């Protein structure tokens, strides 16, 4: 019985994760297919063991269950994708470009997937950018993943504090900004080494 609860949650999770995409619809269709198969197979089993007359009792529960899983799954699939907060984001990979707004509007590519605004505005360009990003992450796995698992929350907070400090210092001494750049450059290299 618990299996039915887990199965429903699994289907809904898949629908939610892949909402407004092919993946979510596939999760919903797959979930429905499995349940209808269970129904059909169960009927065959009942025929073999000679308890068909009890199958309707089971179906009284199963059919509402299928409707429930399907209905909520459908709801999950149609939920809007919440985009990262910010004025502007990459249309191809949804990377938040708010800090890079000026550069991107002038035609710079997205740092995450390399798509320019012109490229990301067409379906073909978005697909290309996504493919490029996948190819890149296969060649060189995200160096941040390991850090995110171990110490990312603290690190990002520290980095933000660091930046604030540097910003304040830069107001007083313009030379300090280049030093800050140096430190961040080293940070990136260290990240590479860890990865
Ligand atoms: Zn992008």
Q: What does the model show?
A:
The chain has 195 residues and is mainly α. It has three domains: 77 residues; 54 residues, no CATH class; 51 residues. α2 packs antiparallel against α3 and α8 packs antiparallel against α9. 11% of the residues are buried. The site of zinc ion has 8 residues, from loops.
Helix content: over 70%
**SS summary, helix count:** 9
Mean pLDDT: 79
Strand content: under 5%
What are the secondary-structure elements, in order, as H or E? HHHHHHHHH
What's the main sheet like? Answer: none
Report the structural category. Answer: mainly alpha
Give the beta-strand count.
Answer: 0
Instruction: Please give the radius of gyration in angstroms.
Output: 25 Å
